[in-house]
């Protein structure tokens, strides 16, 4: 009896784990937007010649999303006090984009209001920075007006252009190894930033 009960508990645990893993894969999968299309391409690492390739799962091919003209880009904002700006200073704890954590940087402004309007003057989004002075949003390609406000600082305004994303999105099972990016095919660099946009806003105190 105890053995049967233990088996039922084990089976229930495995089913729950499988459901949670499936939900995680669904929630973290790249979104497909109007105008996007999917296709399969030869694995960038093994070229379909390695049965146990971890990047393509041994299939030799990888599903790819070809972004359309409506596919949004991620826009990252960093708002800080201009007097704390240090010329040439790296404002990241590591290169952004590859799951790395960004440092807050000197003079990060908490509670700054970021307002984005489109070319017709319609408000698209209103964001508020946190303790690190940072915020992020996905924006479709187009022209925007960026306005940043914070009591005690001069208002900041500028134009923001979000281009059409050009690089394909590879749905690989694991990240390509670093040596791949040293090849002539990859251009000798790892594309960790991709088409994402990073905007630093230096505000001047009143």
Describe the structure.
This protein has a domain at 73-166 and 192-203: Immunoglobulin-like (Sandwich). The chain is built from one helix and ten strands, in the order H-E-E-E-E-E-E-E-E-E-E. The chain has one helix spanning 2-28; strands spanning 37-42, 61-66, 73-81, 113-118, 123-128, 134-139, 142-149, 156-162, 169-170, 197-203. Strand 4 and strand 5 (123-128) form a beta hairpin.
Structural class by secondary-structure content: alpha+beta
Q: How do the helices and strands follow one another from N- to C-terminus?
A: HEEEEEEEEEE
Radius of gyration: 22 Å
Q: In terms of per-residue confidence, which ranges show pLDDT below 50 for 5 or more consecutive residues?
A: 21-28, 87-102, 184-194
Question: Topology of this protein?
Answer:
Elements (H helix, E strand, L loop, with lengths): L1 H27 L8 E6 L18 E6 L6 E9 L31 E6 L4 E6 L5 E6 L2 E8 L6 E7 L6 E2 L26 E7 L3
Parallel strand pairs: 3-10
Antiparallel strand pairs: 1-2, 2-9, 3-6, 4-5, 4-7, 7-8
């Amino acid at each position: 009896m105890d053995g049967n009960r233990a088996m039922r508990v084990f089976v229930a645990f495995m089913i729950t784990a499988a459901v949670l893993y499936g939900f995680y894969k669904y929630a973290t999968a790249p979104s497909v937007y109007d105008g996007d299309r999917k296709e399969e391409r030869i694995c960038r690492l093994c070229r379909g010649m390695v049965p146990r390739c971890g990047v393509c799962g041994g299939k030799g091919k990888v599903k790819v999303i070809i972004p359309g003209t409506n596919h949004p880009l991620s826009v990252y904002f960093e708002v800080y006090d201009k007097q704390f700006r240090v010329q040439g200073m790296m404002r990241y704890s590591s290169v952004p984009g590859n799951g790395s954590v960004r440092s807050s940087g000197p003079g990060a402004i908490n509670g700054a209001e970021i307002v984005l309007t489109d070319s017709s003057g319609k408000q698209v989004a209103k964001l508020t920075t946190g303790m690190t002075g940072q915020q992020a949003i996905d924006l479709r390609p187009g022209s925007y007006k960026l306005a940043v406000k914070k009591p005690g600082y001069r208002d900041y305004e500028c134009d923001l252009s979000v281009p059409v994303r050009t690089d394909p999105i590879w749905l690989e099972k694991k990240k390509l190894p670093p040596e791949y990016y040293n090849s002539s095919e990859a251009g000798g660099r790892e594309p960790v930033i991709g088409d994402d946009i990073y905007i630093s806003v230096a505000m001047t105190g009143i």
